[in-house]
Amino acid sequence: MRGRLLLGCLALVLLLAGCSGDDSDSDGGRITLRFQSLAWQEESVQVNKELVEEWNAAHPDINVEYVQGSWDGVHDQLLTSFEGGEAPDIIHDASDDLADFAYGGYLADLTDLLPERLKSDIPQRSWDTATFGEGIYGVPFLQEPRVLVANAKWLKDAGVRIPTPERPWSWAEFRTITEQLGGDGKYGVAWPLKEPVSATLNLSLSSGGQLFHRGPDGKVTVRFEAADQVMPRTVHDQVNADRSASPTTLGSGGSDTLPGFFGGRYAMVPLGFSYRQQIVQQAPKGFDWQVLPAPAGADGLSQGVSPQTLSIAEDSPHQREAAEFIDFLLRPDNMVRLALGDWMLPTGTEALKNPALHTTEHDWATGTALAAHLRSAPAQSVRGYPEWKDKIATPAFQEYYSGAIGLAELRARLEEDGNLVLARYQR
């Protein structure tokens, strides 16, 4: 009798201990999920918070706690939280930041967690951006093409052909037109290339550039071939040969170029589609601007993108519930709200049909017409890419664009020095 009593007590203790561990983040059986959002624009933050409130009102047993994050240093912040066991359940990030987290076992494989509705609504070309190995480690939900924001009056007065998604400029035509538009202390284009690698690789997709090549053994090597050189050579020649591109903006961010654009110093600025919001807010009254597609190459308007993503932490004890919240957040109508708040494009095919994204106001229709041409960024699944980008590619491209080094030196540094870096991650 005494032995049975001891065994019964021990079982009760173990049961209570197990319940205590499972409910450590619950309140009376109510689950709490932490959602770290990187939304930063006022409209976007508001929409995200509204959607969290709507979810909580409809799901009293699953409370979502909104956590405000920041794009600045998000990789290191997330790594610290993963290693410290304090990662949020639902993680907002970008697809080009996921590779090391996915391969490192920090993110949950969403393959069997996501509903079929969401899987089928987002095209495979978008899923490719968040697929690593055999798993899916993020839901791509917002994306933006790079476009040319142009001074409409300047282009009209110059009599140049205005490109459309149906008839874009080629890279050669773009160079000719910027030379025609420049002169007398003004420039046809201002390239903001403080962070040159992403812009270069993604725009080079239009000419068939790939840069990263995966062999039969799965290892990646860098090859800077002719197709990869079309876009960077155009920029280099605009700055150093034609003098049609401003040399002073090469070290600038996109926002830094807007005062000069508004002041009539540059006819065009290549920017992400979401910069339209800043232009609407900051442009002088009566300033006439328009959105044009980026130049096209041998592969047409193809362009690399790294969509914003929603992931689930591998250590989250409530992965199913987290996936349900993501599904709610990315219903077509909600995805449209998120896109409008961030001035970006949704990945979902149903959301993209929404009339609000096809208006001529602020040239939404031009951006939406480019959605079908967006592809996974070349560096998407390359382990060691952040180090290669920061230590090798960024300084090399900056020096090439400024004219400090030539094409041969650029190629040598990207390939020889770059492959030494990548090799350390592929042993």
Defining traits:
seven-stranded mixed β-sheet, 44% helix
Protein described:
The protein has helices spanning 2-22, 42-58, 74-83, 99-103, 116-121, 124-127, 152-158, 171-181, 196-204, 226-242, 258-262, 276-282, 319-329, 332-342, 349-352, 364-369, 385-402, 407-423; strands at residues 26-27, 30-37, 62-68, 90-94, 131-132, 135-136, 139-143, 146-151, 212-214, 220-222, 268-272, 289-293, 303-305, 308-312, 345-346, 374-376. Helix 8 (171-181) runs parallel beside helix 10 (226-242) and helix 10 (226-242) packs parallel to helix 17. The longest helix has 21 residues, at 2-22. It contains 18 helices and 16 strands. By secondary structure, the protein is of the alpha+beta class. The chain starts with a helix and ends with a helix. Helix content is 44%, strand content 15%. Strands 1, 2, 3, 4, 7, 14 and 15 form a seven-stranded mixed sheet that branches. A three-stranded antiparallel sheet has the order 11-8-12. Strands 5-6 form a two-stranded antiparallel sheet.
Can you give me a brief rundown of this structure?
This protein has 427 residues and is an alpha+beta fold. Helix content is 44%, strand content 15%.
